[in-house]
Amino acid sequence: MKVVVVANFDSMSAEVAKMVFGQITRKPNSVLGLATGSTPLGVYELLVEYHARGADFSRLTTFNLDEYVGLGPDHPQSYHWYMNENLFSKVNINPERTFIPDGLAPDLEAECQRYEKLIQQAGGIDLQLLGIGTNGHIGFNEPGTEFGIETHVVDLAESTIRDNARFFESIDEVPTRAISMGIKTIMQAKEVILMASGGSKADAVYAAVRGPVTTAVPASVLQLHPFATVVVDQAAASRL
Ligand code: GLP
Questions:
Q1: Cβ of residue 33 lying under 6 Å from some atom of ligand 1
Q2: CA-CA 20 to 30 A from 58: which of 15, 22, 47, 215?
Q3: pTM (two decimals)
Q4: β-bridge partners, 152
C-alpha cells in the first residue's frame, strides 16, 4: 500500500485527477470504478477541466460503487443524480457505458447479481476510486462486512446515516439501505485509490493504513491489495 500525503483537499484532488487522467491516456477504453460523497468532488471538477482541454472520455466504461435503495435518478440525493451533475453531463462519456446500481429495482437481489455480472462482462475494473467513511467503510461496506462478499444490499450503520444526514432535509429522509459493490468486487479491481481529506477522517485513515486487517475496519482490506494508493491530505494523515 503506497501512502501519498499532500497538503490539502485541492492537492489531493489534483494528485488523484492526474492519476485518473494517466489511466485514461494509457488505456482510452478503461473501466473506471467511481465513488460519490464530498471527497471526490474536486477530482470530478478537474476531470471536467481536462475534458475542456481536449481529454477524450468517449471510450470509457464506468461503474459506481453504490446507490441508495429507494432513490431514483430524479432524486437530488441519489448517486445517479450526483454523477450526472458532477461529471457525466459535463464530459463526452457515453451514457450507455455508465453504470450505477438501480436503487428502485423491484428485486434487489437480482439487481445485485446483474450488476456484478455487468462488471465481469466489461472485463473487470481497471482503476477504482474510493472515499472512506468515518467508521472505515468503503462503498457502503459497513464494519463487520465479510471480505468475500460481492455486490449486495446493505443496512446502513447508524453513524453513516448520521454522517450523510447533512445532504438531506432531515435525518428521517436518509435511506436506511443501499446497494453496494462488495469488498470482493472492490479487491478485484486492478488498481485502487483511496482518498481522504480532513481531520474527521484521521482515525479511520489510521486504522485502515496502520491497524490490523480486520472486517471491523473495511478499508483495512486494502493493505492486501497489490496496487493500492492512499492519497490523503495532512489533516486526514495527522495520526499516521
Ligand atoms: C458515503 C459513500 C462512500 C463515501 C463515504 C465518505 O456514505 N457511500 O462511498 O466514500 O461515505 O463520504 P464523504 O466523501 O462525503 O466523506
A1: no
A2: 15
A3: 0.97
A4: 180
Pairing of strands 152-155, 177-180: antiparallel
Please work out whether the CB of residue 136 comes within 6 Å of at least one atom of ligand 1: no
pLDDT in tens, 172-189: 999 999 999 999 999 999
Catalytic residue at 74? no
Q: Is 42 in the pocket of ligand 1 (CB under 6 A)?
A: no
Map out the domains of the chain with their CATH numbers: 2-233 (3.40.50.1360)
Confidence of residue 158 (pLDDT cuts 50, 70, 90): very high
Q: How many CB atoms lie within 10 A of CB 64?
A: 24
**Would you state the cell numbers that stand for residue 4, as one nine-digit string?**
501519498
Q: Locate 85 and state its grid cell.
A: 451533475
Residues with Cβ within 8 Å of 117's Cβ and at least 6 positions away in sequence, in order, are: none
Catalytic site residue from 15, 66, 163, 233: 66
Give yes or no: 137 in active site: yes
